[in-house]
Amino acid sequence: MTTHVTLEDALSNVDLLEELPLPDQQPCIEPPPSSIMYQANFDTNFEDRNAFVTGIARYIEQATVHSSMNEMLEEGHEYAVMLYTWRSCSRAIPQVKCNEQPNRVEIYEKTVEVLEPEVTKLMKFMYFQRKAIERFCGEVKRLCHAERRKDFVSEAYLLTLGKFINMFAVLDELKNMKCSVKNDHSAYKRAAQFLRKMADPQSIQESQNLSMFLANHNRITQCLQQQLEVIPGYEELLADIVNISVDYYENKMYLTPSEKHMLLKVMGFGLYLMDGNVSNIYKLDAKKRINLGKIDKFFKLQVVPLFGDMQIELSRYIETSAHYEENKSKWTCTQSSISPQYNLCEQMVQIRDDHIRFISELARYSNSEVVTGSGLDSHKSDEEYRELFDLALRGLQLLSKWSTHVMEVYSWKLVHPTDKFCNKDCPGTAEEYERATRYNYTSEEKFALVEVIAMIKGLQVLMGRMESVFNQAIRNTIYAALQDFAQMTLREPLRQAVRKKKNVLISVLQAIRKTICDWEGAREPPNDPCLRGEKDPKGGFDIKVPRRAVGPSSTQVHQGREERVWGTGGPVHSINAFLLQELLTHSKALQHCCDLSQLWFREFFLELTMGRRIQFPIEMSMPWILTDHILETKEPSMMEYVLYPLDLYNDSGYYALTKFKKQFLYDEIEAEVNLCFDQFVYKLADQIFAYYKAMSGSVLLDKRFRAECKNYGVIIPYPPSNRYETLLKQRHVQLLGRSIDLNRLVTQRISAAMYKSLDQAISRFESEDLTSIVELEWLMDINRLTHRLLSKHMTLDSFDAMFREANHNVSAPYGRITLHVFWELNFDFLPNYCYNGSTNRFVRTAIPFTQEPQRDKPANVQPYYLYGSKPLNIAYSHIYSSYRNFVGPPHFKTICRLLGYQGIAVVMEELLKIVKSLLQGTILQYVKTLIEVMPKICRLPRHEYGSPGILEFFHHQLKDIIEYAELKTDVFQSLREVGNAILFCLLIEQALVSHSSTPYSPLSLPLLCSVLPFPFPILFCFTCIPSFLLLLSSSPLSPLPHPTLITSPLSLLSPYPTLITSLLSPLSPLPLSYSHHLSPLSPLALSYSHHLSPLPSLSSPPILLSSPLPSLSSRPILLSIISLLSLLSPLPSFSSPPILLSSPLSSPLSLLSPYPTLITSPLSLLSPYPTLITSLLSPSLSSPPYPTLITSPLISPLVALCLLIHQLSPSSPLSLLCPILLSITSLLSPYPTLITSLLSSPPILLSSPLSSHLPLFYSPSPLSSPLPLLAPYPSSS
Questions:
Q1: Environment class of residue 157 by beta-carbon count within 10 Å: exposed (0-12), middle (13-18) or buried (19+)?
Q2: Suppose 285 and one of 222, 292, 592, 659 were both cysteines; which one would form an S-S bond, judging by CB atoms 3.0 to 4.6 Å apart?
Q3: Do 191 and 102 share a structural domain?
């Protein structure tokens, strides 16, 4: 049955999706965001006191006094904030320089307008301190009355009076510190007097009083002490206040750090007020009224925070007291010694142990209460609630203890700044605040501070998650304790009071019960025997005490705590009644215990600069100092803590808005956060990129090279593992109410760094010669691996897209690499390099023929933009140095990989233009010149003259050419450039074999051959040669449009890849058939339909190359020059080393056999130049001479000249003499020659790269092949 859902229900269901939690499982390494926290305030400040009309009048009176005094304390805090955050206005106002200044009236008017509101605040402050002193002295006088001294004074009352004493101490110190307050009042007073604003005597007197009040130091303390000394017995009340402070401090009956420090300040300032002309604290100590020895021990904590970044030394209260000098020996706190309490590093062992122990216990409850979701739903017993209550209390006490440690260390450091003698890194010109913060902490102390802050903030997160569970447990436990105490425990004292008819005690106990009790059924049991003073029946009197999660109000807690005075201890005392109010506001107490906002505020030190500083730079700010220290040291164990110091800005911003209520302070915090977080992201991104770059460089570094370095004592370290993964998972970091995607910001920076790294690699290549292309490929490989590692943690553009952008190859057909390769080829490689056939390398000539090309110097960049680190840069530089002095196969393979087919095509095209310009320009002009100086008649001398005679004959004929001055400098240099260009093309083609080699199956070959553009050269590498050969022998391959010669690379001894070359000229109509004499153990044989021409099987390798530039076949002159290039280039021959070969149909060493014979002597290795000559040895002496391939080191320039003459001017007389000249030159060779006769049939396939060049002696015709050596018969020409 289909259920119909209405549109309204469907929309409501969609709206419910917004409430669906979508956790992203990111690691929690930051404090809870204050922007989404709320705090319920249950403190009524005794506003509900009138509801408890049944209580004793004294309690109601005390509640009223408490309420008014608390309001005065709040007002005093506002004035303290006003003084602390006071910024001088008079410095910003233009000053009147002389009485004749025309605009002085306007300046004075503006001065009064600006400063009058501020001076009004100062006037109100003066009146407030008067009123506060009078109120305090009035309370002291009332409590010190002879009749009242017989009664007790409640602890809460004494503590409130102690808070007043602390307020007076703070206000007086703030007034003394702020010179800008006095300066602003003086500026206002001058302007007002000039404008006659204070004409009446009362205004003048008030202004004078304010001036004296601000000018006199310790004015508040002096007035307070003077008014107290006229009160009889004031020292007794002050002694009670000091004793209650000592008791609370000794028994740790405080929760927040400010409460602890307030108790110490009350002790010190209270002793100072007591020790005067009327009383003597040392006499009180002798009477056991106070315990100075215990206070002296407490004052070993030398420095405590006063307000903000203001600190006070407790010993100063003692040293400034009236009777200190004669009792100096009784004090040890005044001696200069460093307290171990300020050495945070020594306390870290205990702090870590407490943290681990508490976290373990908290996790046990958190898993059952929060993770499983059973915390609020399940009903617990009183014992279970009590365990959670104790856990919450212990957690708050631990947080308070750790925060206190941090604040005390910070306070001590501010009071004791370092100098250049204590810290060698501290410059002599450092400011005082800089010496107190930036240079005043060792690395260990900074790490200890970071670790403690991380513990505080981390535990705050965990306890904040359990806030609802803790609140329920706290309210249940306090409610149960109060009700059990009022309804059960007080029954026995009440029974005894009724029985003994103590009416006062009865009224007190009844008032407490009526104030606290929450009776079952909303009324007290009327038949309770204790109300009549009777004993309970034998079965007991059943009183059902309800259980609710409801906390008492502040008035109820105050009433209940008075029970302690009567000595009827019970459950209320056992749960620390002094903490009830704090625990009932658990979230507020948690925030106060974790508040470290004062680490940022620096108003006191800004005041000391006297206007030279508007604000301190971030290098002096504690939050950034700690954050930057983690980033600079790259300590792996601290990297996950790096966000916790930044939370100090959250604390400071919250305090500036909610406590100080100063927008300008928040704006300064926000501005610093903007700057610091930018720096943080910048440094973090650079570190992450450098880390993964070094990791990639270490992974790709040759293991053998690393091992060899280790053998020589050089260690190339791997980068130490770090914990950046956790930071890269942060998607919503909370900072000043903002939610920041740290991963996205770091990704942006790293993307820019990756682009810069690729750009630097290409720029480095552009600043060096062609040999550096190997280094470029290494840099690209390292960047590619770095990109792959980083892509696991962030979303980056594809590496190919980044590479194209860095290479400027996004829209352009070719990029920077291609352009620089061609630039280097044109201006450096072609004119200055020489080919070595033995090593198959190009080397730079000893004498350069061109000027050194001007290249841009590479920019100085950080090591991580290259290989990752300085050691890796040095290691790779050593490896790369072996590729610096030559251009060989590694370079050509790298060029193929980096340029690709498109880039290679561009380079080839440009090289052809260069070759064409050389041939049609320089070379053509010199050839015409040489033709003109060639001898007109040069007959063939008789062979009886012998070799010396013949040589001298030709030497005389060609003397003009040999002595031509520009032959070697210009002609040969141009031929070198042309030859290098063609060799470059050839080696690039060979490199493409290995670069683009792909295994093909036999079944795919027919299709492959049908689509390949014959007759262009095709190069393949086959992994299964026997299958390929069988396919060739059994298939006619009808799709092939032209004959193709295929040589097997695996023929017994050949280790080279397969080479397939089209032999067909478009003019050749001959069909192709295949022999069936193939076997896996015999060489591949191919023949034309009429004759079988077996290939030499021992050639290593058998190579048949057509011209690497087939598109030039329509240009006879260019083709002839290119074809002869390998013969003319002053470089070693391609075919090195030569191997002895012979035709299967002839004797191996027979030069006169009717069949052609291929002979190569190992001595031809001595010949560095290939030479083409014609041999006079033929089957018939009457036959014309035929070309023969030999190796001779002597006459390659002469051969080149003859062939060019023959090609350029076939009908000239010199052209007719060329074959004779070449034939005669074979006699000049002192080495065995390689001879091939073309007369015999069938011709032998030569395994030589020159086979495609020999047809240059013949003119092609429609009936002959352009490759005569490969034709079934000799060419008709």
A1: buried
A2: 292
A3: yes
